[in-house]
Protein 1
Amino acid sequence: MARLTTTSTAPKNVFFSPFFLVVGLSITITLLLFLWRPLNLDRTTYLPLTPQAETTVIGKVRVEIIDDKAKKNTSSSVITDDSVEKEELEEIVDEKENSIEYTVTRGDTLHDILLRYNVNYNDIYQLTNQFKQLANLRIGQQISWTMDDNHNLQTFSWVISSNNIRLYERSGNRFIESTETAEAVSQNVTIQGEIKSSFTIDARKSGLTNREIDTITKTLQWQLDFRKLQPGDKFVVLLSREMHGKYSTNSQILGVRIKNSSKDYYAILADDGSYYDINGMSLSQSFLRYPLSRQAPVSSPFNPKRLHPVTGAIAPHNGVDFAVSRGTTVLAVGDGEVVIAKYSESAGYYIAIRHGRQYLTKYMHLDKLLVKTGQQIKRGDKIALSGNTGRSTGPHLHFELHINGRPVNPLKAKLPISEGLTGKSKSVFVEKVKSIKPQLTL
Ligand SMILES: [Zn+2]
């Protein structure tokens, strides 16, 4: 704000100076950009297709204008802190993949799913236009696809039911549909492997699918850091697979064992559908609901459909704002690693923490950072003092929770609660371990 008031103290002829012309021109361009933006579909702003686009100088000019307008706005929330360092975080969350398996969830459309994974837009258009039935995806259905290095879609498969699988294969600029209706055969499989480069790569080489690998890394995410596995470390997986010819439509991991130089890690499936170690202890890590030692009023709720006060376009508020005075202690909500701890013009002093593989939390507008990038922290650790830094209109803590790279409402999200098995379910589990463990030999 200080930089804006300096112009008013300058002598009158400053309005004719080249400096003012440049500023005026920037403001004009920026206003034009505002008018133009709402015409675009909001979702395009999520796409990491052109990661540089959001960090150009134009972005900065825009930001100053928003700041100015924000003064007149009575809302106590922060306007643009959600766009902060997007590329940086996406790099952490996303791994480059040419072969993707995906389970359809609520609100998904094929168009959106494929766009989110950077599939070539022309291919998405071609596929969905050629096969209108692809608009009928159902929640829980399994789809998978492969792309070449230029993100051109090569194959796409859609499991409608266990004996009805649609396959779409590229042929020139079009896709050809075929159907697989073989009867399902269920079989138990043991897959063994050794780390040569990384768990994901070697597990895939050994014959595990991306979805199976994903289940394993999520299940054991609190026990070990998969990136720290060394060449020579071993793994073995027992799974039950439903096979249709060469396609597996359904698989369930019954047991996993990963052995590094010092320790054995087990995950065994219990009847409740969760995984436990061989002693029946939960493998998940619990979270605190609030990043504060005592509850504070919410001054601006999580709102993915919030309308921008200036443009009227959708400008999601990807977190919750807690009204707290400057200097309030901020706590890490779970065990994890600090992946960002620095100053940014929009978020002020801010912190991002990765918790295992699926979860990421962000804390913004802090007054003082108490941790450093790369630091391992425990749930409840003091990580910062809250403040009013960056583009903030008053002291508050902006807190975000991301699950699988998507912001969710931290006050309502389902969070893992760590519990062990007891009583009858424990004794059933012990019997299960007796039959599964001997099959996990290395
Ligand atoms: Zn906020």
Protein 2
Amino acid sequence: MSDSNIAEKYRITVIIPTFNEIENIENITKAVLDVFAKSDINGEILVIDDKSKDGTIDAVKAMQKSYPQVSLIVRESDHGLSQSVVEGFEKANSEIIQVIDADFSHPVELIPQFLSAIESGADVCMGSRYTKGGDITDWPLKRRLISLGATFFGRVLFPEVTDPVSGFFAIKKDVVEGAELRPRGYKILMEVLGKGRWQSFKEIPFTFKDREAGESKLKLSTIIDYIKQCIDIGLYALSHHETSVWGEWKKLLKFGCVGLSGIFVNTGILYILTEYAGLYYLVSSLFAIEASIITNFLLNDSWTFNDKVKSQIAEKWKRFVSFEVISVLGVAINMGVLYTLTEFAGMWYILSNVIGIFVAFAWNFYVNRHVTWKENNHLK
Ligand SMILES: Nc1nc2c(ncn2[C@@H]2O[C@H](COP(=O)(O)OP(=O)(O)O)[C@@H](O)[C@H]2O)c(=O)[nH]1
Ligand SMILES: [Mg+2]
């Protein structure tokens, strides 16, 4: 049989990475097989094990005798969760790949929903703990905070994705084919989103249940790895313009250019109204600020975020009001930083103002991106 024939043999491959999961592996495999049977899915299970010492390997081998759709790969070197999942991508015998944990943290009964999302056109389908309907049970506060922090960073790179560090996701195989994945740490989905080729995605809310059996292997060094990974993905996009992250960088650059143009509009109007219309300069300034907000909005709406512009005029007004409010708050933030750094940190007011401009710019971009021009490739 040729490779392409093998690739079509199954409708979905469920990858289960394992390390010392003797207490879970048999049950989770059976649970997935059950879901396959109930939903009439011709699927395979691919267990990718990093040389567990607790009998996990023998347990899988025993199951293979009754279930030919269960495969096992035992990895000899370069151990790690992400590396294991990537090896699974390469060995999968289907065009749709699902990744789940072995410890029942991910509700396997949702697998058919992931499958149908991908079959209906999503390139990536992600289980999300942070979208409406999603949740986490039994997590200590510290872990929740770490996860929220990680998610925040991830959302700078992928603004429309609510849970870019979820371990529960499905992809079309094409997304990662030829992608230069550098798997590291726990956050393989970030790597897929950062380096793979994808456009449309769907999120499925789920409640993450912490493991009932066995021990978690999350270490503190994971956080440092994660930050490195975010930087790596950001830099990678600079030279890989097919990535979705490059689309974000482009928006940021355009938003910056529009902001610069606003300075010219502002200065020009200030000058004209003061010199030729005889207005008091502070009054001119109010008009100048509003004029630059309006031109900034029009340019951002038709250029920076042109991929998400909806044509109805009512929608446009809504976006304008949102932009206006965020901009005015941005001015307040700028002045707040200027005042605080000058008065309380003794900084030279020009330097305080430059810092204020940067903080306000970050605010303006981030909040407008998430509120005014949100949702583009997100399939409902
Ligand atoms: N192959 C492989 N699997 C791993 C490794 N570390 C964890 N896993 C598996 O990855 C999944 C998630 O691990 P877990 O420790 O539960 O992470 P947590 O839920 O984030 O605490 C489980 O199925 C583990 O067995 C590893 O180094 N190699
Ligand atoms: Mg777990």
